[in-house]
Structure formats: C-alpha cells, structure tokens
Amino acid sequence: MASACFSAAFALLRNPPLPNVLPRARIRFPNGPRSNVSRVRSLASTTRFGWEDALRVAADDSVADELDLRGYFDRVRLCNRGSEMRSEFVAFLIENQIVGYVHKGFLEHLREFQDVFTVVLNNEVSSVGDYVTLHSSLITPEDRTQAVGIVIKCLGELIPGIRNELYPVTSSYGMPTFFSLERAAAPYFGIKAYGVHMNGYVEKDGEKFLWIGKRSNVKPTFPGMLDHLVAGGLPHGITCKENLIKECEEEAGIPRSVSNKAISVGAVSYMDIEGYRYKRDVLFCYDLKLPEDFFPKNEDGEVDSFRLVPVSQVANIIRRTEFFKPNCCLVIIDYLFRHGYINPDCRGYLQLLQSLRRGNCS
Fold first, then answer.
1. What mean pLDDT, rounded, does the chain reach?
2. pTM of the model
3. How do residues 150-178 score in pLDDT, each as one tens digit?
4. What's the confidence (pLDDT) of residue 33?
5. Do strands 97-103 and 89-94 pair parallel, antiparallel, or not at all (unpaired)?
C-alpha cells in the first residue's frame, strides 16, 4: 500500500492538479514508535506540577546537595540513552558521505519506495558495511527534498508530529546541504539536527536570576515541562543568530534591539537512541543579559507562563527533579559551569563537564 501511495503522490508531483491532500498509507505501529509514544506519555505524567511545586523544591534548603553532582549526571544520562543499540542501525549515505543512521526495522518500510531509496545489505565492498542511500536518479537537492517528503507523508502515523518544517541534511555543520528533511522525521533517519538555546538572565543586587518558561500543556512534545526562555531548532536557510532573534520575538517578545546583544558561548551535544529513533543533536548556546524591568511575553502560544528564578534555585530543580525538558538541562548545566555554580571542588567535575558533549559535536 505504501508503494501505491508513493506512485500516486509522485505522479501528482510530476503532473500537479489542483491543490489536494496527498494520500496516506495505513501502517501499523511497530515497537519503535510505540515506545516513543509511551515515553512522551510517561514524561507528560511527570509534568502534573505547578510553579508552586517547582519553586518549593528549588527553595528547600534542608537538602545539602550543592556539592553532589549525581542529579546532574542523571539529567545527562536521560539525554544519552541506547548506545548499546547502535548495531541495530545502518548508515545513511548521500554522495558517499554519512549523513545519518536508519534502524533495520524502519528500513523495511523504506524498501517499499524503490524509486527513492536504495538499500544495500550484506555489503562487503564499502567500508561502512550495510547502508541505505537515495536512488541515483535523485540528483538535485530539490528533487531529493520533494521525493523524500512524499515518502514521509505516505508513511503516515509511522512518523508522528509532522511540523512542515524542513531541516538541512549535511555531513556536518556548515557543509553543503544534500537535501532538506521534515523536522519530525530527522530522528528516524539519524540526521544530525542543530538548535539554539538561550539563557536569558538578570542581575539584581549581585545575584543572578534565570527566566524560565513553562511549556504549554497542549504542546505535542514535553507538554507542561520547564524550558528555556528561548529555544528552537535550526531550520534550513537561516543562520543561528537570525534564528535566535526570530525565536526571541516569537517565544518571549524580545525585540531585535535587545536580542541582537545575545552572546554565543559554545555548544552541547547528545545522542539518544530509542526504538527507531536515533537522535543526534547539537545545541548552540547563547547568553543574554536582560534589563531588570523586562518581562517576557509569549507570542506563539507555545509557552504557558514565565518565572524569574535565582540561578541557585534553578540548579536545585535540575538536580532534584525531572521537571525540565531534558535537553534544556544540558544547556543550563553548561551555564552553571561557566558562571561558577559548579566548581572543581565538586566530585566528578571533569567527568560531568565532558559529558555535556557526548554526541558528535560537528
């Protein structure tokens, strides 16, 4: 049925009629996507908390854990699961460059689209072993983007959360784009994705505070969890700084005259494997010092509310709970290192520092 879906959709692409909705194949959920749905649901169940709960945990001085890094290590591990399952994936090659990794189970669905994907198994010639690539007839980035996009739509609910937002597919950051891929599909092809995360902070009476957002309860991913003031994936055709400025306006109502002062402070990375998903993310980190009288205002409906929280209390929430969206923890821990809240007297200091770049940061 998937092949019929693709043939019909590809014919529409070659000879487009009046605008219409492309047909979708009905495909049963395999174990991979079901585990992902279960994960989102289980995380959603942990978000049944309010600001009062988070701030109560944050302000609890009865727990003397300032030098205990175990909570931070737990947050890092949550972003870096499944390394033992790497052997279940094959390389995704474009022009002899590895751009991603595809699970062998997911590969069976792609094999139905022989005009788009070429699967090479039991390979003894290539140094990468078994692999999947795009059909040799798909030469230009535009043709590849259109053909793969049709496949994504044909796969229907196998890839949930379609956002109609394209990510560039490259061998590494800054390299030529081979084609662009739907954001929701990136983990299913093991594509390295990039994003921007900004720590918006305020200094008052010698103390630093971080603006924290609480995600909307209707967000499809990590609803109701704590988040950065500003964060977003890096789509195709925009620079990191311009993307950050755009997200600042949409997510927190920060005008360009202010957001333009954000400072690039490095990057963190992680690698998370679950089911068919091989998530390889690099997050570019920014700091922005905000005026004391600034108050954020969400413009896109993705944030429920904001609070200004002392950095030391944000650290307590990270250490003691799973209230934060997991990858935000890495960026905040990096901030804690850079601003002296985690110091070399803490046991495991260097190991934690290195763990913030567990993924391939390239």
1. 87
2. 0.85
3. 999 999 889 988 888 999 999 999 999 99
4. 40
5. antiparallel
What is the rounded (10 degree) CA torsion for 57, 63, 66, 67?
A: -140
Which three-class secondary structure state does DSSP give residue 188? helix
| Helix extents (H) in 155-253 | 240-252
Distance CA 80, CA 82 (A): 7
Left (φ > 0), alpha (ψ -120 to 50) or beta: where does 82 sit? left
- Closest by Cα among 210, 331, 339, 170 to 266: 331
Q: Round to whole Å and give the CA distance between 280 and 3.
A: 29
* Residue listed under structure tokens 């799973």: 322
Per-residue confidence at 123, pLDDT binned at 50, 70, 90?
confident
**What contacts 308, CB < 8 A, 6 or more positions away?**
202, 209, 210, 211, 212
SS3 of 34, please? Answer: helix
How many C-beta neighbours within 10 Å does residue 138 have? 22
Q: What is the pLDDT of residue 24?
A: 31
- State the DSSP code for 245: H
Q: Report pLDDT digits (tens) over 32-76.
A: 443 333 333 333 344 579 999 999 999 988 777 777 899 999 999
pLDDT digits (tens, 9 = 90+) for 194-239: 999 999 999 999 999 999 999 999 888 899 999 999 999 999 889 9
As a whole number of angstroms, the distance between CA 63 and CA 316 comes to 9
E-strand ranges in 216-337 read 226-228, 230-233, 263-274, 277-289, 303-310
Phi/psi class of residue 240: alpha, beta or left (left: φ > 0; alpha: ψ in -120 to 50)?
alpha
Buried b or exposed e, range 46-80, using 16+ CB within 10 angstroms: ebebebeebeebbeeeeeeeeeebebbbebbebbb
Residue 247 CB partners (closer than 8 Å, separation 6+): 196, 198, 230, 231, 232
